[in-house]
Write a structure and sequence with these properties.
two-stranded antiparallel sheet; alpha+beta
Length: 168
């Protein structure tokens, strides 16, 4: 005699629950949103480090950032490296183009939970300068606390206290 073995509703529900648990754990481990934030922040950190190095090489020859007080943002600005871009220093010997924030001109939530605009900024009094950007990934919160006096931006540059040197 042959028995007809079918799955009970209980067995199907248990199997479905296990599959959903495994799917949830794999999505949590994969974390596509966090990965995107970390990736964009890594690009921001690399962009500002490269730009700072290019400016340092240029100002080592010139002695300053041209003596012209400047505050500029990369949103809607040109990426020209010859001094006519959002950084008014000719870094054409070091870079092909000025970088733009990965979220340039778009709103996103920074590490403090504030809604901000994705942009890089250059601020200079002609001698000292600051490059700054907002970061997204919570892992980078300490960078805000250790880079200067303004905890609303990640900053690199030569001004003491960075952007607070300019009263920003």
């Amino acid at each position: 005699m042959k028995t007809d073995r079918r799955f009970s509703t209980f067995e199907i529900l248990v199997s479905l629950a296990l599959v959903l648990i495994l799917l949830g754990v794999s999505l949590w481990a994969w974390d596509p949103v966090g990965r995107g934030r970390r990736s964009r922040d890594a690009r921001r950190l690399d962009d500002l480090a490269s730009l700072k190095a290019a400016i340092e090489q240029t100002t080592a020859v010139l002695g300053s950032t041209h003596g012209v007080p400047v505050s500029s943002a990369s949103v809607g600005a040109t990426t020209a490296v010859g001094g006519s871009g959002w950084v008014p220093v000719d870094v054409s010997e070091q870079l092909e183009n000025l970088p733009l924030d990965p979220m340039n001109g778009q709103s996103f939530t920074d590490v403090w939970g504030n809604s901000v605009i994705g942009e890089y900024q250059f601020v200079s009094d002609g001698y000292y300068y600051v490059l700054r950007a907002h970061l997204e990934a919570e892992e980078n919160l300490d960078l805000y606390r250790t880079d200067g006096n303004d905890n609303g931006w990640y900053e690199v540059g030569t001004a003491a206290g960075l952007s607070t040197f300019f009263g920003l």
